[in-house]
């Protein structure tokens, strides 16, 4: 779960903005010859997450082609980002008739398309609009780039991932190794809050977050956090609650202007970078993600996942849990089960 490489890459993109791309890649230790061509498509690229995520993917030297798709606004975003002197070629695609072109040849498709929450709403309140959006985008993915790794950001992730799986199954293209619900923001938050409370340098911190991506289904495993700290049980409970409510904290602070976009773009870029590294054969790439899973009774579950050349290489187990975490796990199962079933039902009824 190391995000430091991406951070270093972004920093060096700024500080070495005039250096050639080959110097840039060599500095990252990859050597130009060994970096394969990779196309990344962002669907919803003109949105609050989409724009900064597109920027971060433009700064990622593992990307050679960047396709920016949205129902509106992508020509401007693409023109703007395309002037940045980094490796990838950028193209904007707008409207359904250009979706196929945007997707064709993609290795990774990132989906931050759909409506965000306003204060007072749950992520599930977004279901009615976002389920249909995700369904139609996944139908196009199964047609134009069935082998791509799909990084689902659109909420409610606990339901949109099962919807995507059902769409792919119907199209005969489902590969459970290639579908990911992006829960990296929960990990990013858990790391930040833990480091702050424990007064530990945040760059050294790792915290697995398991379960799903909504309220109590977000279960940070602070008992497994490294480095160890001497936080009290009360402090762990408070950190858990803050991580579970992190999205709501941002929604309320934005007061009607949407939900997390900048931290989500950062988290989405970390996760896509991990997928690209896995595809490129980098070893020991591990991130938490909401994937098809058999580590609990539920068909989808977020846990540490090892990424490889075909996507998921291994879904890692939960490891030892504290009593508090075991209780949290029991509590989250019925809610997560219902959200998964809601997604499956939608995909099969509509
Ligand atoms: N997984 C997470 O951790 C996480 C974190 C933050 C936000 N989100 C979710 O991400 C989604 C996007 O959030 P945002 O703040 O960027 O919203 P936003 O409204 O700013 O942007 C969404 C974009 O999606 C586009 N869009 C709508 N329908 C589309 C379609 N059919 N095809 C392509 N693009 C389409 C819109 O035009 C818009 O540009 C929301 O559902 C939000 O809840 C998830
Ligand atoms: O909270 C939201 O609605 C957006 C996102 O899921 C988040 O965790 O920030």
Helix and strand content put the structural class at: alpha/beta
Q: Largest sheet, if any?
A: 6 strands, parallel
Within the CATH hierarchy, at the fold level, what is the topology of the largest domain? Answer: L-2-Hydroxyisocaproate Dehydrogenase, Chain A, domain 2
Spell the H/E element sequence.
Answer: HHEHEHEHEHEHEHEEHHHEEEH
Number of strands: 11
Please report the first level of CATH classification, the CATH class of the largest domain: Alpha Beta
Q: Strands across the major sheet, in which order?
A: 3-2-1-4-5-6
State Rg.
19 Å
Strand fraction band? 15-25%
Low-confidence stretches: 13-32
- How far the N terminus sits from the C terminus, by CA atoms, comes to 37 Å
| Overall geometry | globular
- What is the CATH homologous superfamily assignment of the largest domain? Lactate dehydrogenase/glycoside hydrolase, family 4, C-terminal
Distinct compounds present: nicotinamide-adenine-dinucleotide, (2S)-2-hydroxybutanedioic acid
Domain unit count: 2
Mean model confidence by pLDDT: 93
Kindly describe this structure.
With about 350 residues, the protein is an alpha/beta fold. It has 2 domains: about 150 residues, 3-Layer(aba) Sandwich (Rossmann fold), CATH 3.40.50.720; about 170 residues, Lactate dehydrogenase/glycoside hydrolase, family 4, C-terminal (L-2-Hydroxyisocaproate Dehydrogenase, Chain A, domain 2, Alpha-Beta Complex). Helices cover about 45% and strands about 15% of the residues. The chain is built from 12 helices and 11 strands. It has a 6-stranded parallel sheet, sandwiched between helices. Strands 9-10-11 form a 3-stranded antiparallel sheet. Helix 7 packs across helix 12 and helix 8 packs antiparallel against helix 9. It is globular, with a radius of gyration of 19 Å. It starts with a helix and ends with a helix. About 5% of the residues have low confidence. The site of (2S)-2-hydroxybutanedioic acid (LMR) has 11 residues, from helix 10. Nicotinamide-adenine-dinucleotide binds next to helix 6.
């Amino acid at each position: 779960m190391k995000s430091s490489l991406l951070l270093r890459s972004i920093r060096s993109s700024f500080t070495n903005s005039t250096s050639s791309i080959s110097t840039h890649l060599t500095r990252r230790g990859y050597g130009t010859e060994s970096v394969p061509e990779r196309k990344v498509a962002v669907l919803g690229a003109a949105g609050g997450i989409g724009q900064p995520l597109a920027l971060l993917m433009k700064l990622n030297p593992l990307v050679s082609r960047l396709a920016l798709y949205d129902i509106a606004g992508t020509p401007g975003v693409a023109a703007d980002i395309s002037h940045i002197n980094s490796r990838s070629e950028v193209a904007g695609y707008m409207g359904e008739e250009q979706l196929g072109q945007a997707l064709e040849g993609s290795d990774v498709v990132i989906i931050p398309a759909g409506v965000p929450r306003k204060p007072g709403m749950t992520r599930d309140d977004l279901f009615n609009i976002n389920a249909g959006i995700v369904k139609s985008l996944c139908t196009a993915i199964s047609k134009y780039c069935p082998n791509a790794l799909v990084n689902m950001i659109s909420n409610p992730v606990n339901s949109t991932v099962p919807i995507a799986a059902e769409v792919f199954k119907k199209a005969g293209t489902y590969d459970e190794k290639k579908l990911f619900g992006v829960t990296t923001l929960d990990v990013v938050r858990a790391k930040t809050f833990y480091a702050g409370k424990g007064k530990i340098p945040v760059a050294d911190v790792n915290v697995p977050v398991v379960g799903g991506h909504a309220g109590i289904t977000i279960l940070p495993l602070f008992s497994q956090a490294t480095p160890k700290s001497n936080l009290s049980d009360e402090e762990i409970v408070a950190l858990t609650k803050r991580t579970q409510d992190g999205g709501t904290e941002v929604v309320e602070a934005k007061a009607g202007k949407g939900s997390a976009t900048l931290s989500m773009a950062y988290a989405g870029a970390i996760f896509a970078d991990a997928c690209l590294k896995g595809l490129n054969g980098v070893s020991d790439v591990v991130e938490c993600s909401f994937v098809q899973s058999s580590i609990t009774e539920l068909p989808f579950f977020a846990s540490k996942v090892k990424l490889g050349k075909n996507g998921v290489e291994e879904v890692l187990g939960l490891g030892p849990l504290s009593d508090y975490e075991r209780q949290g796990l029991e509590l989250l199962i019925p809610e997560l089960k219902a959200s998964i079933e809601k997604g499956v039902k939608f995909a099969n009824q509509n």
